[in-house]
Structures are given as structure tokens and as C-alpha cells.
Amino acid sequence: MASSHPDRTVMVHVRKELPDMHLWSSLDNVIICLINDSTVCTDTPAEQFYSKFIHELMPKSKFGAVELSDILRVCIVYRLGGTYVDTDVIQLASFNESIEDFVLNQYGRAVNTLFHFTSKGN
């Protein structure tokens, strides 16, 4: 997405520094943001669910880290507005950001996960 749209900012949110982060930040339109997951969901519609997930559900889940990252993604895009696209999605055409809010999750060959909020806190 960053190379397809060099005129748009792409934000990569991570919980800790990663060995290959310098590759991402070598692109002029990529910003790496370190996040504190305990505050990302504060003051969002997912705040209560996040708390329950961390304290009750995550310890019992086989896929806790994956599920936590899903929650954090939604909270980040809710807070900032914009679009989230999985890294394994290949963009074949231009994306029209004027489209209203949507969530797309398909377990097939075309799209894995994509969601978009038109404005902050929407």
C-alpha cells in the first residue's frame, strides 16, 4: 500500500521494536508508531471488551495474541480514522476513501481483512 500510494501516509503500529523496522521506515510515507496496548482502547467502544479479554478470555485462548491484535487494530483505526488492510492483501485497483465506514472479512482468496472509518472516533 505504501509503494502504491506514495502520496499517502501509512502508519505501522507495533508493541515493540522489531529487527526489520528500518526497512519499513526507509519509505518516505511510512511512519512507525510504538503503542501501549493498555491505553489504545481507552475511551473507545471496545474499552470494556478489551478489559474483559485481557483478564478473562485471553488466558484461556489458543489464539490470544492474534485476537488481541485484532482488537488493537480496530481501536487504532477508530481513534485515528483511515483504513486497515492486512499485509497479505494485494491491491489491484485504487481505493476510494470517500466510501462510508465498512468492515470486510472474507476467508477466501480475494480479501482477508479490510476496514475503514471515515473520521476519527467514528
Proportion of residues in β-strands:
15-25%
Biggest β-sheet: strands ordered side by side in the sheet: 3-5-4
What's the Cα radius of gyration? 15 Å
What is the straight-line distance between the termini? 23 Å
Total helical elements:
4
How would you spell out the order of helices and strands? EHEHHHEEE
Low-confidence segments, given as residue ranges, are none
Residues in helices, as a percent range: 25-40%
How many E strands? 5
How would the global form be characterised? globular
Classification by helices and strands: alpha+beta
If you average the pLDDT, what whole number results?
77
Main sheet summary = 3 strands, antiparallel
Pfam families: Gly_transf_sug (PF04488)
Protein name: Alpha-1,4-N-acetylglucosaminyltransferase
InterPro entries: GlycoTrfase_DXD_sugar-bd_CS (IPR007577), Nucleotide-diphossugar_trans (IPR029044)
Any overview of this molecule?
- This is Alpha-1,4-N-acetylglucosaminyltransferase.
- InterPro entries: GlycoTrfase_DXD_sugar-bd_CS, Nucleotide-diphossugar_trans.
- The protein has helices at residues 21-25, 37-40, 47-57, 64-80, and strands spanning 10-14, 30-34, 82-85, 102-105, 113-117.
- It is α+β, with helices and mostly antiparallel strands.
- The chain has a domain at 35-117.
- The chain has a three-stranded antiparallel sheet, covered by helices on one side. Strands 1-2 form a two-stranded parallel ribbon.
- β1, α1 and β2 form a beta-alpha-beta unit.
